[in-house]
Amino acid sequence: MKINSSADYINSLTKCSPIIYYKGKKIEDVTTNPATAVHVRAAAMTYALASDPEYMDLAIATSHLSGRTISRFTHVHQNIEDLIKKVKLLRVLGQKTGTCFQRCVGFDGINATYSVTYEMDKKYGTSYFERFKKWLTYIQDENLMVVGAMTDPKGDRSKGPANQSDPDQYLRIVERLKDGIIIRGAKLHMTGAVNSHEILVMPTTAMDETCKDYAVICAVPVDAPGVTMIFGRQANDSRRDNQEDMDVGKPSFGVVGGEAVIIFEDVFVPWERVFMDGETDFCGDIVYRFAAHHRANYGACKTGLMDVLTGAVCYLTQIQGTANGSHVKDKVTEMIHLSETLYSSSIACSAEGWPTSSGAFMVNTMLANVCKHNVTRFHFEVARLATDLAGGFIATLPGEADLANKEVGPFVKKYFSGVDGIPTEDRIKIGRLIEAMTGGTAMVESMHGAGSPQAQRIMIFREGRLGQKIKLAKTLARISQRDK
Ligand code: SF4
Ligand code: FE
């Protein structure tokens, strides 16, 4: 059932039957429910680009496992060029959807698991790598979407996994059977979960020997018995009840990725889908590598979003007659400068990539953390500048129903117009797009997706090579290189 197009992808989702709740009710079909259909369409774009001659070179790759042509989203980076192509692909997808297209989480999980399982086998003589390659070949051949599931609920944050009063606060193995394991727990904030085919479960943090049952990597189909999802609410989501409504702002695609809680209630996983079982000393590596790959993305996908936002603001200034103001040009210049700065760090951490012993390439983790950390500032500044330039009307706009109303519609048309010749509807539409891209959930995602800012600061400090920097300073100051 290889998926060859966006239509195939959408069709494939109707064949899965995951249990998904939203606002207290079951979602029967994610491809048509207004809450989820927008995210399905955004993810579908990752399939569409694979057959678009303009972007094919970025969107497809050759599998090093089978030699067959595959989606880049299922590829293991074989060199620096692969890492850079990924960045370029993500920016294009950000530009085309103006939102999160979700498929990178599984992509990054695949890449982290690949190198870590290889190293586990070298150390322990296990066979996780071979199992993982088999599963990955299946994913590549079928062209499936995988959700990378890392973040555990964590309960009392002052305690580790094994010391919680409720042991399920971190996902764990509750039983080991002859033919597989039983897992229980939950994963939160799972981007793209409701419209993926498979879940790649990974541990959420570094662990010590007391946490053997929590050190687990495995693959689970989204509709495996015992899996239940609860789809999260987003700012202004009820506006989407009518998807064609002008008030939505971005009718085709979501504001953000579409996140869900995934609950695992004693889910059976056969051994051939288990890629870590108790190797606690590798938990830190999987988190570290996954996080670095994912943080490297943010200067790419978010830059694509900022390109759209910059375009939206420029157009709005044109149609309301402010485009030629020198302060307007200056602010737009700053928006571009910030976006391109973020893109530079995504390119830089890829250009400084390095081969792991498995052959899979990793990004430069210091630069990837700096990249994501800057997103938590620059994206907000770009949004602030966009809001500044757009003016207050994006916060007070009457709705589409008012525009359509016989009594007040003519007033909305008259008093929300801009320069002559431009329909008021166009000004409203672009205003709504800016509203959707600068408010609520969209900005929270930029702050906390791929790890909150403090997580990057910890990594930046840890990787800062301060000892070496002290040496440089001592040499120049002619201080002897003692221990202290
Ligand atoms: Fe991909 Fe960006 Fe969405 Fe993360 S936030 S899944 S990197 S599009
Ligand atoms: Fe994200």
CATH superfamily of the domain at 286-472: Butyryl-CoA Dehydrogenase, subunit A, domain 3
| Rg calculated over all Cα atoms | 24 Å
Major β-sheet profile = 6 strands, mixed
| Low-confidence region ranges | none
CATH architecture level-2 label of the domain at 286-472: Up-down Bundle
Shape: globular
The strand order across the widest sheet is: 2-1-10-11-7-6
CATH topology of the domain at 286-472: Butyryl-CoA Dehydrogenase, subunit A, domain 3
Provide a count of the helices.
16
Helical proportion, percent range: 40-55%
Distance between the termini: 64 Å
CATH class of the domain at 286-472: Mainly Alpha
Overall SS class? alpha+beta
Strand content: 5-15%
Explain this structure.
- This protein has 484 residues and is α+β, with helices and mostly antiparallel strands.
- The strands form four sheets. A six-stranded mixed beta sheet has the order 2-1-10-11-7-6, with no helix packed on it. Strands 5-8-9-12 form a four-stranded mixed beta sheet.
- The model has no long low-confidence stretch (mean pLDDT 95).
- The chain has 16 helices and 14 strands.
- The chain has a domain at 286-472: Butyryl-CoA Dehydrogenase, subunit A, domain 3 (Up-down Bundle), CATH 1.20.140.
- Bound molecules: iron/sulfur cluster (SF4) and fe (iii) ion.
- The site of fe (iii) ion (FE) has 3 residues, from loops.
